Structure of Beta-galactosidase:
Amino acid sequence: MAMKKIPMSNNNASVVFLAFLASLVCSVTASVSYDSKAITINGQRRILISGSIHYPRSSPEMWPDLIQKAKEGGLDVIQTYVFWNGHEPSPGKYYFEGNYDLVKFVKLVKEGGLYVNLRIGPYVCAEWNFGGFPVWLKYIPGINFRTDNGPFKAQMQRFTTKIVNIMKAERLFESQGGPIILSQIENEYGPVEYELGSPGQAYTNWAAEMAVGLRTGVPWIMCKQDDAPDPIINTCNGFYCDYFSPNKAYKPKMWTEAWTGWFTQFGGPVPHRPAEDMAFSVASFIQKGGSFINYYMYHGGTNFGRTAGGPFIATSYDYDAPLDEYGLLRQPKWGHLKDLHRAIKLCEPALVSGDATVIPLGNYQEAHVYNYKAGGCAAFLANYHQRSFAKVSFRNMHYNLPPWSISILPDCKNTVYNTARVGAQSATIKMSPVPMHGGFSWQTYNEEPSSSGDNTFTTVGLLEQINTTRDVSDYLWYMTDVHIDPSEGFLKSGKYPVLTVLSAGHALHVFINGQLSGTAYGSLDFPKLTFSQGVRLRAGVNKISLLSIAVGLPNVGPHFETWNAGILGPVTLNGLNDGRRDLSWQKWSYKIGLHGEALSLHSISGSSSVEWAEGSLVAQKQSLSWYKTTFNAPAGNSPLALDMGSMGKGQIWINGQHVGRHWPAYKASGTCGECTYIGTYNENKCSTNCGEASQRWYHVPQSWLKPAGNLLVVFEEWGGDPNGISLVRREVDSVCADIYEWQPTLMNYQMQASGNVNKPLRPKAHLSCGPGQKIRSIKFASFGTPEGVCGSYRQGSCHAFHSYDAFNNLCVGQNSCSVTVAPEMFGGDPCPECHEETSSRGHLQLMTCYSRSK
Ligand code: GAL
């Protein structure tokens, strides 16, 4: 996108000069503190815009680009959790390599010129396996998580200290000249404390004291913790936080999680949060005195391997964030928020000067006015009405405010931004198959449904799954024998007995004498499941093999660490001659994990340890199948994914690296309807994918590939068609601009502020393709009242015939272009009688769509 030059007034120049001087000082000795208004850095109050990027949810090769895009998007700070179970996979054995290289990540953020908000936790929630706790922690004698418990506190203190010491040794706190300006202890503990009462309170006080005692030299925060002890700042998390105030008048109003969308769960639709409402929520927080906002997530990324929690959290953690799972700009969200940040920053000196004066402008309208120290003011004009435009008058000027929107006036006069007027370009993204001669050529290896034998152990009764596997694998086999007497009536009638299995979750495949007989699974809201189905038993001994599967351990909820998984019973057979037979208390054999896992079939060396079948022997719709193939990396550096639409459920590896769990057979149920930005948002409001796979595409980081001979291994539990799997590129297909004639422009304000122009400037349509791409053609342009959304525009009742001319001339063949939106550019005003408030999309609207060309 073209960058606008920002002319500076004398006033602005001096502010920038001071900030520059301060940042020079910063890198030597810096102090971070706070007062009632804001976080202060070297004594200066700051309005800080932050965004969450969790380092293990992308590859280190992606980090510099994500950080750069965050910076271009107007961020000052990157926020991340620290993921204990990734860093200490077994007690005392630490791992800080690859995508767990926390020091490298923090240093890259510094190099990118941004600050860091380090949320050490070490409980993190985050839809992450076990909320970030290592599973071994649960097996420390006498431990009780997140309460006033000696063994837990000792472990928490040990790990927190370890992280703080690493950061100190690398001089990464701002007090040492590093980028970390804030740290967080615990995460949303308030509601848990409320349930626990006094042990909860004691734990809060201990955690606060412990953290402060680590002397990082920068402030600590606790989110959703109304009683956070001094000097810790309590902060807000939510879709909106304008109503929030900190627990002491001398603490600033901070929003640590402004949810940009929501996570996807297997079985659920894909949530989206409109850019206009996101901007509205942030503008209303700032207008009401907020001074720190963090987008959760700014880049959501991917739950690689078995890191997803839940249970049932999908492998994609896209979150509808401004940077999508693959690191591409999500437009118009990224651009609309970038414009918002510029508008807020223009007001920063006024915002940090003191409190706002609130002036009612109507029943649903109000102004928040902030005075500059040097004179003058900045204002936010809000219209909370959910249907109507509002004409308001403020300081003898008239303003037209769209419903559910806030206008920002850095000089109390000119509107430079309105949250409901998206000036940023939008884009449609496509997943295009990478040409591969004849597709993947698969080999297959069948995992036998387990029966007692190698690595099994036998006991009476049913065992809880996590206690048994300690989460080294998703899979646990429960196996038993059932003797059927030849006199059983069903052998003649063919009315098979019903096997009923009650499981605490999360998924189950039932094999009878080696044949898949049925499958059952739960959901995030209800992980428990019941399998109840007629099963083909024969006279004599029958092998019942139940494959119980965990799909991520819980990460939130009261004492989530105690929740069970696996077949706890009863397991019964009904419809035998003597009625019901309870199998729960007979002898069961157990096997942890799959045979293929024990052989490391996903790895290059392990995969050559067995005979693989090829050609017509590659079975389709076959349960418990391992598939492997090799392929060469495609040309170019577009992000890549595997289209798993033809598969059922299982896991994927590339060159031994674990992509994650696939489960496209779990179709999304929920409500996917009309989506309007207007009105209070919640995670169920603007979903897509109902009736389709919750997740069809699985991100393959480019850096995991070598030029040739990449090993792709898929384990399929349920049955799918591997020939339907393809490698796809994620690319910008078309970009669109949707410009309103009334679009506020930052340029107008800046030109006026510098005294260079008297008459308002016309808005411009700015369009740009991805790096290395050019605009091939104009798919659609209409200066008038066009309808539809990017990718499916159509002409409205009014349309200027020369709408395409300017675009064809100025844009085709270019990487980017800007076109002024004014009637004379398109052969005159096609509908002079239209008015902003009578037309939902604006009077003279212009939309263009550009398709990619290479
Ligand atoms: C918050 C929590 C985050 C994340 C979020 C939902 O309550 O602090 O870690 O789980 O909910 O995505």
Residues 124-127, 187-188, 237, 257, 263 surround beta-D-galactopyranose (CB under 6 Å). The longest strand covers residues 726-739.
